[in-house]
Specification:
Helices cover 40% and strands 15% of the residues. It contains 11 helices and 8 strands. Strand 2, helix 2 and strand 3 form a beta-alpha-beta unit. Helix 1 packs parallel to helix 2 (52-59) and helix 7 packs parallel to helix 8. Bound molecules: 2-phosphoglycolic acid. 2-phosphoglycolic acid binds next to strand 8.
């Protein structure tokens, strides 16, 4: 099953609107020339909410697409500080990251909340990038599989099963995020296999289309090792994606250029 590779930049809480605009300009400039002929792949930038509109305007007509880093449930309402999928979509986002470990850890998002957000992304036609991952403690104590399975199974009933063909699952071990420590690529592939099998057992065919990413200290130094794995369809990149050249270089490596 050929699945379209995808590279996603997660800027987290970095970059002003002006910096986002400058990055967008540079991104398009660096991508010009022979690279235009590379077959279309999915290249997505997820800036802070404040830059979604400016960046999507700047990147419109290019290969690059924009996503949010979270969404709030509902459409509009008296919810101070919240940004719904409806508002994100209107501002030009086509993707949304959900259930990042930083959201789970610092904002108290439970598996049930992440499942509800998956449903919201489906309703607003945003392609979800759902993050799962075990803590260092879970990893050390051999609970990785059980934790991941629980996180995946919590998602299964949230949307109609055909919807899973568009779902993207990002496996991000918490101990690998921002640390420079990465798991072995074939261990990541085994995990990808498990994730797909759990979804296949429950929902069948859509699991073959569902894309699985690796995230956690990805850079130009290691991205090829991960995307080369048959179960891994791309990467979710934090720190290294803040540098536009590094992002373009990863995208080109990712595309096998
Ligand atoms: P990192 O972050 O690439 O800086 O490790 C990845 C992420 O948290 O999505």
């Amino acid at each position: 099953m050929a699945r379209n590779p995808i590279l996603v930049a997660n800027w987290k809480m970095y970059k002003t609107v002006e910096e986002a605009r400058a990055y967008g300009r540079e991104l398009v400039r660096l991508w010009e020339g022979p690279r235009r002929d590379i077959p279309a792949r999915d290249l997505v930038i997820c800036p802070p909410f404040l830059s979604v509109w400016a960046l999507s305007q700047r990147l419109s007509g290019s290969i690059f697409q924009v996503g949010g880093q979270d969404l709030a449930l509902g459409q509009e309402g008296a919810l101070t500080g919240a940004v719904s999928g409806y508002l994100l979509r209107d501002a030009g986002a086509q993707y949304v990251i959900l259930g990042h470990s930083e959201r789970r850890q610092h904002f108290g998002e439970t598996d049930a909340v992440v499942a509800a957000k998956l449903k919201a992304s489906y309703d607003w036609r945003l392609t979800p990038i759902v993050c799962i991952g075990e803590s260092a403690e879970d990893y050390m104590e051999g609970r990785t599989e059980a934790v991941l399975r629980r996180q995946v199974e919590a998602l299964l009933g949230a949307i109609p099963s055909e919807g899973f063909a568009q779902v993207i699952i990002a496996y991000e071990p918490i101990w690998a995020i921002g640390t420079g420590h990465v798991p072995l690529p074939d261990a990541v592939n085994d995990i990808g296999q498990h994730i797909r099998q759990w979804v296949r057992d429950a929902l069948g065919d859509p699991a073959e289309h569902m894309r699985i990413l690796y995230g956690g200290s990805v850079s130009t130094k290691n991205i090829v090792d991960f995307w080369r794995q048959p179960e891994i369809d791309g990467a979710l990149v934090g720190g290294a994606s803040l540098h536009v050249r590094e992002f373009v270089n990863m995208a080109l490596m990712h595309l096998g250029d």
